[in-house]
From TrEMBL:
<keyword id="KW-0808">Transferase</keyword>
<keyword id="KW-0175">Coiled coil</keyword>
<keyword id="KW-0238">DNA-binding</keyword>
<dbReference type="GO" id="GO:0009307">
    <property type="term" value="P:DNA restriction-modification system"/>
</dbReference>
<feature type="domain" description="TaqI-like C-terminal specificity">
    <location>
        <begin position="604"/>
        <end position="748"/>
    </location>
</feature>
<dbReference type="GO" id="GO:0009007">
    <property type="term" value="F:site-specific DNA-methyltransferase (adenine-specific) activity"/>
</dbReference>
<dbReference type="GO" id="GO:0032259">
    <property type="term" value="P:methylation"/>
</dbReference>
<feature type="coiled-coil region">
    <location>
        <begin position="331"/>
        <end position="358"/>
    </location>
</feature>
<dbReference type="InterPro" id="IPR011639">
    <property type="entry name" value="MethylTrfase_TaqI-like_dom"/>
</dbReference>
<dbReference type="Pfam" id="PF07669">
    <property type="entry name" value="Eco57I"/>
</dbReference>
<protein>
    <recommendedName>
        <fullName>site-specific DNA-methyltransferase (adenine-specific)</fullName>
        <ecNumber>2.1.1.72</ecNumber>
    </recommendedName>
</protein>
<dbReference type="InterPro" id="IPR029063">
    <property type="entry name" value="SAM-dependent_MTases_sf"/>
</dbReference>
<keyword id="KW-0489">Methyltransferase</keyword>
<dbReference type="InterPro" id="IPR050953">
    <property type="entry name" value="N4_N6_ade-DNA_methylase"/>
</dbReference>
<keyword id="KW-0680">Restriction system</keyword>
<dbReference type="Pfam" id="PF12950">
    <property type="entry name" value="TaqI_C"/>
</dbReference>
<dbReference type="GO" id="GO:0003677">
    <property type="term" value="F:DNA binding"/>
</dbReference>
Length: 791
């Protein structure tokens, strides 16, 4: 694909034809000089590794008018950059790309699309294949990328995040500039109101931007284009920064942007896109060699190396040598020069590592973490020595905590300020980004929104509240922002500083219709300024001032549900394998007929979906309540029933006898048999029910073991449902997650008996009607509950 784009520039010629690949392929097919033909070995390897990667190729082609080399690959430029350096696989003669595959690619794929060398603008809809397609191909086709939790970010979102990060950066660096002037400059490329455009240019030239999970380079390219457009604006309107587009891009790539990813192939694609973006800007027949990006866009694990803030000081002489060697390496062309510079860089890195981590002071586990992880303070020493990065921008991977258990110990040690045993991987990227940012630096992430409300996000919320000013939160809820991922996402922008108070803009995006994908307009039309103290400590209230006022009134009028019921909010029973332990009435009768003792451990069962508003839809379901320590001597029929499932039962994650329930909740099992309030873990509407049948409930429910119809009326009121929607985690399908961390905080009004009595009577009517045609009674309940809250 890279060659297809490059040939559009006219730099590749075969038989003086610029439709290079097609002509090369046709010539190869017409060549009958050998029977052992293979296009990859006979032509492409010479093109990649002798032509495009050989600084002396002009001399080779010049001999005898090119001789053999010109005959097989034509005229090609030296491009360098590490792109066409041979690796171990390239040298393996046993790796063969069959001609049939080449034919499908050239004739079946490339010939059917219009390739353009200009990457589309954020809102462009031109039907053409641009260099951005390299990133999309990577995201869609690379095996395991989705398993690693990586998804391709839509370009309008990338552009918005880069622009907002740059606004925060310029505003903090250039305090004399008007905020509106900076916004006009970045949003509209209009520099007319800037007081000191020269200072703005120098500040843009100095910015250090990093994506710690860069993937195929969407944010690296996004920031490259934003910085380029801003500098071109200054040249066009103010006459400063007199350079070609190629020179500006090269300077930005060499000076401003950094990236790291754990996937080597992703890193190669990111480098490839940067090279291509640079190459297409050169106007002329002899393009200069591409920069070497080995020490700019790097492969490594961003999280497992120790906290860079805890490292020792590095002497200026080493930083100076390191910076100079890396700068020379970027533009080194000869293999011998690159090799010697790489050796010098690695030697200086060893010295820096010794100074930052020490030798005797570093315990064995730290040494192992340093060797396995990406050691930021060493690899990007020239940035960390100056205090860190100005901007961290990323779409961190979406990986659930069960899938990275092997690195949990390192994460616990590296990120005590955000760690929770149930934290998903993206939480630690927030922690790392804040470690890498200098004071005043900008954090711009798009990630899951669950950490706003989930218990595992408490420490992260507290850490951000303590160290940052949150500029904006744009929550997409369940909207499908990523076409290939069912992830609930939001855009989070914060500045690493705790002393300056900024307003926080919160936007709950309602749809992906117009004005989306213009995120800025969506925020202007739908956003709200959060009240002061909304993001205070670990408890964040993401709502407008009206909702916040209602929440505060409700909280002032009562006590938390957890306190009201003496913290008795119980999670349901987890079987670990429902097929074995959940039976119907016929099987129940069969087991009891064989062993009458079985009746004692067979309980009526209600699951989450059975729980409706006011009522439980009792079904023909029973639970084999095989608690831990159950005596099976008189339960032979039950054991015989379970035996066919023994292998699956033994494979469960927790330790118990194979015939026992995984989590029987034995400690409070007697409470299931009493009158109680039951509600589901996940719901789209209020679904608090009253059970008097002694049903045992599964792990998709919670139980409150009280006979309290007043409480049931409060919980099923519209006010409480609005309260829960404000705090509970959103799920796909307009549902919310009613975990006890949220429900335990529901304010329950302290009412007199005379205030409770009419609500109890109305609730009893709803129960007698089994929840059918209860609208008038529910309306009156709402009115009475609202009065108790003072609403």
């Amino acid at each position: 694909m890279f060659i297809v784009f490059i040939q559009k520039k006219g730099w590749l010629k075969f038989n003086e034809q610029t439709n290079y690949l097609e002509t090369l392929w046709q010539d190869y097919q017409n060549d009958n000089s050998t029977s052992d033909k293979n296009f990859y070995h006979n032509r492409l390897t010479h093109l990649f590794f002798t032509g495009l990667n050989n600084p002396q190729q002009t001399d080779i082609i010049g001999i005898n008018n090119g001789g053999f080399l010109r005959q097989i690959i034509g005229t090609v430029p030296y491009l360098n950059g590490g792109l066409f350096e041979q690796d171990e696989d390239d040298r393996n003669p046993n790796i063969i790309v069959p001609d049939q595959a080449i034919d499908v690619i050239l004739q079946g794929l490339f010939s059917n699309f219009n390739f353009t060398v200009t990457e589309s603008t954020p809102l462009d809809v031109e039907v053409a294949v641009d260099p951005e397609m390299l990133g999309k191909v990577f995201e869609e086709l690379v095996t395991g990328r989705h398993e690693s939790g990586s998804y391709y970010t839509p370009k309008p979102i990338v552009s918005f995040m880069c622009r907002e990060a740059l606004k925060g950066y310029l505003s903090s660096k250039l305090t004399s500039e008007n905020k509106e002037a900076i916004e006009l400059f970045i949003d509209e490329y209009n520099a007319i109101n800037l007081k000191n455009p020269e200072a703005v240019l120098e500040t843009l030239k100095q910015v250090k931007v990093c994506d710690p999970a860069c993937g195929s380079g969407a944010y690296l390219l996004g920031m490259l284009h934003e910085l380029l457009d801003l500098r071109q604006c200054l040249f066009a309107t103010k006459g400063i920064d007199y350079k070609t587009v190629y020179q500006r891009k090269l300077e930005i790539i060499e000076t401003n942007i950094y990236g790291v990813d754990i996937d080597p192939f992703a890193v190669n694609i990111a480098r490839l896109r940067l090279w291509l973006s640079l190459a297409v800007e050169y106007e002329g027949d002899n393009p200069p060699p591409l920069p070497n990006l080995k020490f700019k866009i790097e492969t490594g694990d961003s999280l497992t190396a120790p906290n860079p803030q805890g490292s020792g000081m590095v002497r200026e002489e080493f930083i100076h040598r390191f910076r100079e060697a890396k700068a020379k390496y970027l533009r080194a062309h000869l293999g011998s020069d690159k090799q010697s510079l790489e050796q010098e860089i690695n030697e200086v890195k060893k010295q820096i590592a010794l100074l930052t981590h020490g030798s005797a002071s570093v315990i064995a586990s730290d040494k192992e973490a340093i060797s396995k992880g990406f050691d930021w303070v060493v690899e990007f020493a020239e940035v960390l020595a100056e205090g860190g990065f100005d901007i961290q921008v990323a779409n961190p991977p979406y990986v659930r905590m069960e899938l990275f258990k092997e690195i949990k110990p390192a994460l616990r040690k590296n990120f005590p300020e955000v760690h929770s045993d149930r934290s998903d991987l993206y939480c630690y990227f927030y922690g790392r980004a804040l470690q890498l940012l200098k004071q005043g630096g900008m954090l711009a992430f798009i990630s899951s929104n669950k950490w706003f409300r989930a218990k595992y996000g408490e420490k992260l919320r507290q850490h951000i509240a303590d160290t940052c000013q949150v500029r904006s939160i744009t929550d997409f809820g369940e909207l499908p922002v990523f076409e290939s991922a069912a992830v609930l996402v939001m855009i989070f922008l914060a500045q690493k500083q705790s002393d300056i108070k900024l307003n926080t803009q919160f936007t709950q995006v309602k749809s992906l219709e117009s004005p989306y994908p213009d995120i800025k307009t969506v925020i202007n039309e739908q956003g709200t300024i959060l009240p002061n103290n909304s993001l205070n400590g670990k408890n964040w209230l993401l709502s407008d001032s009206t909702t916040a006022s209602l929440i505060n009134k409700m909280s002032a009028a009562g006590i938390p549900l957890g306190e009201y019921v003496n913290e008795k909010i119980y999670y349901g029973i987890k079987t670990g394998f429902n097929k074995a332990f959940v039976i119907d009435g016929a099987k129940r009768a069969e087991l009891i007929a064989k062993d009458t003792k079985s009746a004692e451990i067979i309980k009526p069962l209600a699951v989450g979906d059975d729980v409706r508003k006011w009522r439980i839809n009792y079904k023909d379901k029973y639970l084999l309540y095989m608690y831990h320590g159950v005596d099976i001597s008189e339960l032979k029929s039950v054991i015989e029933h379970l035996k066919p499932y023994r292998q699956q039962l033994e494979n469960r994650a927790t330790k118990q006898k194979w015939y026992e329930l995984q989590q029987p909740q034995l400690k409070y099992s007697k409470e299931f048999e009493k009158p109680k309030i039951v509600y589901p873990v996940i719901a789209k509407e209020s679904r608090f029910a009253f059970d008097i049948m002694g049903a045992f409930t599964n792990d998709k429910t919670f139980t409150i073991p009280v006979n309290d119809l007043y409480l049931l009326g409060i919980l099923n009121s519209s006010m409480v449902w609005d309260y829960l929607k404000t705090f509970c985690s959103d799920l796909l399908g307009k549902s919310i997650e009613l975990r006890s961390i949220y429900t335990s905080k529901i304010p329950i009004p302290l009412a007199s008996e005379s205030e409770k009595e009419p609500i109890i009577k109305l609730v009893q009517k709803c129960l007698d009607a089994k929840g059918v045609n209860c609208e008038e009674w529910e309306k009156e309940i709402d009115e009475r509950v609202a009065a108790l809250y003072g609403l």
